[in-house]
Amino acid sequence: MDTAETIREKIQTLKHIRQFCVDEKRLPTDAEKREADKMIDAINKYEAAGGEFREDDLKFLNTSTVPPIRPELPGGEERLTTEGTPYQLRMAGDKKDYRTMYGRENNEYVWRDKNSNFFQALFSGRFHPELTKRGMSELIPSDGGFLVPTEISAKIHDISLENEIVMPRATVQPMRSNEIKLPAMEIGSHASSLYGGFSASYKPELGSLSEANPKARSMTLMAKKLTGFLRFSNELLQDTPNGEQQLLNICGKGLAWYRDRAFLKGTGAGEPLGILNADCTLVQPQETGQEADTIIYENIIGMMAKMWAGSFGNSVWVCHQTTIPQLMQLSIPVGTGGMHYPILKESNGGFSMLTRPVIFTEKTEVLGDQGDIVLADLSQYVVGLRSEMRIDLSQHVYFTTDEAAARLIERHDGQPLWDEPLTLPDGSNQVSPFVTLAAR
């Protein structure tokens, strides 16, 4: 483990790398990027182990931990990204770990008691000066609960991210307040214009130019409160090895499950608007004479035909696990010799169907119901996420069984970036980044 002195040396080196890039008006070299990544990993491990930073170091780490990153574009071009800038919009391929999304704040809530961890102090039911001070100063009456230290929030967020379907593939906007407005375009129809109003035409020299202004709209993300309930024995933290990590896993995986379910099939009333209930989602009807609770090849190709061409490369199949028997038997007859070509393929422990990855889950609808199989470009779904978490505790609900009850409170919102399906230039066919199969 690095010492405080070696960490300061790494921070100074990062400062030098960044300053060189600024002075020379250039992006960092590959070697500089690799060196910076190694130092950042060491700094993160030092912080996770409870290491402290000087005020000037914290200020630098808060403003920019990572020198500018230069992903390669077709043709060898380079571009700057905001991936290392806190509270900037994160695209589908960007990192979404806690520190990348929120950076470091000078007033972060850091748990400084080296003799006990946050959960032990919270669930002991006894007075703890730091816990009380933070709880009283940061308490939001409408939410309730004690503020969770930043390092604990970061661990819960990162565990959740590892277990989620939608968030890693979505567009994510870190939120500083309960509400944020994002600009978006009206989808409209390509039969008349693009993006709800943009049109173009070829004109001869000195010909009159026509104008058409695309129509913009405003999307509002308003953080919804998700409250997770935990019930556990009071001996868990005291007597169980690694009891704190068990609680972190429960919280992180629990958040992943409920956030995914809301992003996939939330109603939008007091919770995020899920893909299955969005106005932009297209429904592929069942085939004439199709038996109940079946999936046939015509369903799959019909769904693919409704996928917007610009989204196909990012799309994934999200299927309820009850569809596995049907999909495993799905095949295409080849020739007259009775040979069949399977649709669902397995490679390196993962599945794909007609070249697109398949994710099996219990978070959609069961076989035969609308939404049991979804073809989705999750980059066209936007998530708004607050950084802080809170815990509300009761030692009395399960007093007779010597158990504690706690509520983990976290706030987020989500909705598709599209407001409606896109009508193609023929004026009749529609496509969308989200397609599902009708009930059968």
Describe this structure in words.
This protein is an alpha+beta fold and 440 residues long. 29% of the residues lie in helices and 23% in strands. The protein has helices spanning 4-23, 30-48, 55-63, 98-102, 118-123, 129-138, 150-163, 235-239, 243-265, 297-305, 324-329, and strands at 146-147, 171-175, 179-185, 216-222, 224-233, 282-284, 316-320, 331-334, 339-342, 344-347, 350-353, 356-361, 373-376, 381-394, 403-416, 422-423, 430-431, 434-437. The strands form five sheets. It has a seven-stranded mixed beta sheet with strand order 6-18-13-7-12-11-10. Strands 1, 2, 5, 14 and 15 form a five-stranded mixed beta sheet that branches. Helix 1 packs antiparallel against helix 2 and helix 7 (150-163) crosses helix 9 (243-265). The termini are far apart.
Order of helices and strands: HHHHHHEHEEEEHHEHEHEEEEEEEEEEE
**Low-confidence region ranges:** 64-83, 135-142
SS strand fraction: 15-25%
Number of helices, where a helix is a run of at least 4 consecutive DSSP H or I residues: 11
Distance between the termini: 58 Å
Instruction: Give the C-alpha Rg.
Output: 26 Å
Q: What topology does this entry show?
A:
Elements: H1 4-23, H2 30-48, H3 55-63, H4 98-102, H5 118-123, H6 129-138, E1 146-147, H7 150-163, E2 171-175, E3 179-185, E4 216-222, E5 224-233, H8 235-239, H9 243-265, E6 282-284, H10 297-305, E7 316-320, H11 324-329, E8 331-334, E9 339-342, E10 344-347, E11 350-353, E12 356-361, E13 373-376, E14 381-394, E15 403-416, E16 422-423, E17 430-431, E18 434-437
